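Justification of computing resources. Each target in the renewal requires a structure prediction run like the one illustrated here; the chain below, 92 residues long, is used simply to show the kind of job we budget for.
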Amino acid sequence: MCPQISAKELACEEAKAKLARCCPGFDNTPIECVDTSGEVMGCDQVDLRLDDARCVTDRSCQALVAEGVCARAIANWNGGFPQGFTAVCAAP
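Resulting structure tokens:
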């Protein structure tokens, strides 16, 4: 039996897909959405926080570009792993 995906893993995967679809030049490969219960790979621990994932999925592609979400996501992840991680969404 396969393990069940958690809500935060699902939100992360959906946000990864949307960023890849909406942000030209964005590479979603380095984003880990696996919740390893306290290890350094959880979606809301290092790679993509749950609130950021929800923010991404709630916005249109046009809003992601206009609000700088795409630019921050590209700065965070393109070229490997996050360096000096910044939240991708501005506070609503």
